Structure formats: structure tokens, C-alpha cells
Amino acid sequence: MDQKRYKRKIYLEDKPRSEAKREILEAFTLPLEIEMIPTSDALGRVTAEPIFANVSMPHYHASAMDGIAVIAEKTYTAHEQNPLQLKLGIDFAIVDTGNAIPAPFNAVIMIEHVDMIDEETIEIIEPATPWQHIRPIGEDIVQEEMLFPQGHILRPADLGVLLASQQLQIPVVKKPVVAIIPTGNELIEADSELSSGKIIEFNGTVFANFIKEWGGEPRLHRIVKDDPEKIRSVLLEAADNSDIIVINAGSSAGSKDYTVHIIGEIGTVFTHGVAARPGKPVILGKINEKIVVGVPGYPVSAFLALEWFVRPLICRYLQIPEPKRQTVTVKLGRRIVSGMGAEDFVRMNIGYVNGQFVANPLTRAAGVTMSYVRADGLLVVPASVSGYEQGEFAEVELFRPLEEIKNAIMFSGSHDLTIDLLSSQLKRVRADMKIVSSHVGSMAGIMAIRKGEAHVAGIHLLDPKTKQYNISYVKKILAGLDVILYPFLKRKQGWILAKGNPLGIETVTDIFEKKASFVNRQKGAGTRILFDILLEENGISSEEITGYDREMFSHLAVAAEVNGDSHGAGLGIYPAAKAMNLDFVPVADEEYDLVMTRSFYESESGKLLIDIIQSPNFKQQVEKIGGYEVVEKAEPKKLV
Predict the structure, then answer these.
(1) Residue 382 contacts residue 344 (beta carbons within 8 Å)
(2) Residue 236 gets which letter from DSSP?
(3) Quick check: 255 pLDDT over 70?
(4) pLDDT at 4
(5) DSSP per residue, 300-364
(6) Cα-based angle 344, 286, 295 (whole degrees, multiple of 5)
(7) What is the mean pLDDT of residues 59-82?
(8) What residues are paired with 351 via a beta bridge?
(9) pLDDT at residue 1, as a whole number
(10) What is the C-alpha separation between 454 and 483, in angstroms, rounded?
(11) Strand, helix or coil at 411?
(12) ∠ CA 200-232-244 to the nearest 5 degrees?
């Protein structure tokens, strides 16, 4: 097939997501298939028809207690002043819980209310009432009663009810088979050797498990190269052998994005592009009566598109409603800007601070999988809204249980690798707790404390006048608030450089004179403030530094940018350089402190956090990293 005929499709549609979804649901005409399966294997399956009980439960009159079966009417004269004696086999029978009640008895007296006179005789002082402590036939299930309607998702207890009613084989909806086709010349399997320009294919596995979770049967195809003939062939094969087709990548407008053209040739294209970010370059079509969904290659875009368009198809086929996430109203810790005309799906971290839920956006880049993994929820900004201001309230869909979010410690401020260790140790001590961190820089961390949007902030701000860390900034910005400045770490800041330090960089002057490609931190970060002080002390303007405006939000991100660039340089902490196997030239010893309100410091959560910081286990873990020292027996710094 001539690849030249597939001209790049530059423009994508901006079709509303709801309209695109409606179109494919209307075009989805897959006939329902039913299969009979053993009841014991039916957990999570969906009933295809109403299911009725074959037998009653119990199917006989059963004793509900250990005791004696009697004829109630013959016990009416029993009284404390007139004990009544009964004879075994004539007036009563001994029964245990679950035993059948022998005729003609119609009541059970608990063994605790019976006095044994001898082996044949008992005495009672209270009368029985007809059918007391007896489970009548059909008390739980009545024969021919409808147990479950069609479209019911079977739970563990449901299987017990089915077996108790002697339903051993049940009709369930056949799982729709969903073909998953990963495409791209750059893709390799996870066990392959990595090389520049090659990407591990993992979307397919994620898709397969989403589809399992939603009730479908995934079939993951091997990687298909960007060749029109191969893509055409695999799509036609999938249309014959599956119920729904998902093809990953090739849905945009690149020179190798053939998918939309091929679907149009062998089938029908309903949509190419929806008004949503991320996830815009979606293809929705039909091949041989099978719906095909082309999702973008970027992971977050792909995951969202799968939820928007594949999950509804599976639910429609299974005859079950689409699941809805729990929502919560949050106060926004940062401004969120959105372009009009398209929905924005913003991944959020959420914490519970001072009696209210506070949320901060994670990176909005469509290729950052960890932003989806770490997110507590999803803020959907409608197409008609241009965004939200900091401090406004909005509704967020939750990815995690609300209680888990409530128990989290909201951490803001400067990025440090030990915070993840601290969170891990916290979770070991309290399985229901964790730290949710937002790497926004030291100044923004202090402001988060001021606005009541974080429990703790990590800061390392050097005052150029006093040469002290943190105290002057906290006193000035948090004036009037009762706060604690807790000494946490001593750590080394230094130049992060390519292996072997090919430029021979030792000082900030070397950065300038040797035209190193500098990787900076964001405004307000303590590391950036230190760098600016070094520039000022050496009479160097920021405009003279190549890459000064190139900002990263963590030390690891700085190290990752330097890695592989022989002219690269950044300022950061030793563990970040170590993690990337880079050179490190020490510049300064700094104090990394924690800011928190006194009320949090004295709370159960605050005390637990401090106990973990001072624990031998945590200190040992920190020391293993290198370039760190936990402050021993720390006491809050004096702020007055």
C-alpha cells in the first residue's frame, strides 16, 4: 500500500464529548449473547435473565435454637407458681439449631429455660407461643421467588443465595471481547533493551486491566508497526474476532498517523477529535458493525478516552449503569486556567486541612502517567468555564475513598526525596495515613500554611543579609500566626554536572564563563534563591546565564535534564545527582526545616510525624541516601 496517499490530517474536530459518545452508543448494535456458567464461578458477572429460586430456604420447619420442641398449646399452664413437667417423646423432643421440627410439635423452648428433672422428664415455668424459635419453610427464600433481575452484578453473598436455592448453573451476559491494538515504530516490549527513541509499551496492559475491571474480556495484540497495510490487516482481523476494537496511537495528525484514514477506507469514521483536554485526538468509528475507538498515545489522554468511550459500550452491552465516582467540594490551592470551548480534565491532589478539603493541580501534561497514578481526584472544568481562581470552590470526582483523603497529611513547599521515605514510614505505622506532597517551592509552601491549605511545608530559604535559613521569611510572611519552625534536615546543595564534569565547573563563575546549559528551579524555590544570591555575590546577571529561565519543579527533574548533556549544569541536592549517576560539586550546607501551625504540631498526626522523623529506622534510611543528616533531638526554632 502506498503510504504517500495518506496525507497528514492537520485539523482535528472539536466535537462535544457528549455528542461523540451518543453517536457511538446509537451505532453500537452488538446482539446480546448469553452463556451458562457454574454459580461458584460467577462472582462479578452480570445476570442475563431474571433468576428464580428452585427450592425454598429452609425447605422444612427448622429449629432456630438449641432446646426442646413442644406443642405450644399444652404449655399454657406453666408458671413460676405452677411448674409444668413434660415427658420425652410424649410432650417434647430434643432439637438443636437447624434440626427439623418433628410433628406434631409447633414451638421451641430454649435449653436455657428448661430444668432437667431426670433423663426423661423436664420442667418449665413459662409457656411457649406457637412457632416461637422456629424458622418456617421459606423464611429466607421461597421457591419460585425471583432472586435477581437481569443486569445484576453478582456479589459474594449473592452466590450463597443462588446455591442455597439450588441454582447451580446460571445465565450471565457473555463478556464483550475487546481487542487492544498498540501501534508505533517506537514501541518495544517491557523486557526489551532500551535505546534512544524507543518507548516501552505499557498502555495495552493498563487498557486490559481497565477492561477487566469494567466487565469486558481484553485481548491484547502484539505491537503493530506504523505501516498502513499492517494496520489495515489487524483492524479487519479484530473486527472479525472481537466485539469492540481499541487501537492505541496514530489517532492524531502526525505524518505517521494513518489510523483515521484506514478506518475511513474500510469502515465509517464518526468522530476525529473531541473538545476535551487531554484526550482531544480520539477516533470513533465502525468497521464491519464493530465499534472502533482510536485513542491517543499519551497515557493520560488514552486512559481518559478509554473511560469516556469504551466503558460506556461495555456497560451498555452488559445492561448495567455506568459507575459514577463520589464527588467532594474542595477549595482550590492554586489558580487553574482553562481555554474556553473544551472540557479540561485536571488531576488533583486533595488534603483535609482545618476542616475543609483543599486541592492542588498536578501536572497537566498528557504524557505524565504518574500524575494520574498520584491523583486523588479529577476536576472537570466545563467547556463554558475559563478556569477557577485560587481560593474558589469546585467539585472534584474522587479516585480514592474519602476517609483515605481525610487521613492524609498535606505537605507543600520544597521538593525533597526524604518526604517519600517519611510517607512510607508513616504508612507502616498507620496503614490509613500517608503524606500527599505538592512540590511548589519554599515560598509557595509558606503561603500554603498562611492560607490554611497545607499541614506542613518544607522550606530552605537563605536570608542574604543574616545568612540564616528560614527564620526571617517565616517571621515576616507568617506574622500573627502561631506557627512552629521545626529543624528537619541538614543537606548539601551543589552543582549537578555531567559525569566526569567535562567543563570543569567548580563555582558559579564557571557556569557563566564556560557557557554551561543551566537548568534552574522555579521562582520561589529555595535552591533558586541560593543561586540568585551566588550570582549577586559574584556580580553576574541572570541574563548572562544560559538556560536561567529553564525551570524544573524538583531536584530529580533538574538531574534528569542534566543527564546526557555534557554541557548541562544545575544546582540541587546530592541524592538527585547520585540517583542519575552524575557528578556533584558541593556548594553549601543548608537547613531544610518544616513549618506547621502549633495546632497541627500538637495534634495526634503532628506528634506521630515528629516521632517518625526522630525514629532510628527513619534516620538510617535517610543516611543511606547520602548527603543528608536528620537533626538530632530537634526543638522548634525560636521565632521571637
Answers:
(1) no
(2) H
(3) no
(4) 53
(5) HHHHHHHHHHHHHHHHHHHT-PPP---EEEEEESS-EE--TTSEEEEEEEEEEETTEEEEEE---
(6) 35
(7) 95
(8) 358
(9) 44
(10) 13
(11) strand
(12) 75
Best CA proximity match to 123, nearest among 168, 77, 165? 77
Cell of 273: 477529535
Sign of CA dihedral 37, 42, 44, 46: positive
CB under 8 Å to 467, separation ≥6 — which residues? none
What is the pLDDT confidence band of residue 393, given thresholds at 50, 70 and 90? Answer: very high
Distance between CA 566 and CA 544 in Å, rounded?
19
- Cis, peptide link before residue 104, omega less than 30° from 0: yes
Find where cell 525560636 sits. 638
pLDDT band per the 50, 70, 90 thresholds, residue 253: low
- Number of helices (H), then strands (E), in the chain: 18, 37
Residue with cell 482553562: 338
Amino acid (1-letter code) at residue 275: A
CA distance 390 to 525: 20
Please state the pTM of the whole predicted model. 0.83
> How far apart, in whole angstroms, are the C-alpha atoms of residue 418 and residue 368?
22
Per-residue model confidence (pLDDT) at position 10 = 47
Q: What is the 3-state secondary structure (H, E, C) of 534-547?
A: HHHHCCCCHHHCCC
Beta bridge partners of 437: 411
Pairing of strands 456-459, 583-597: antiparallel
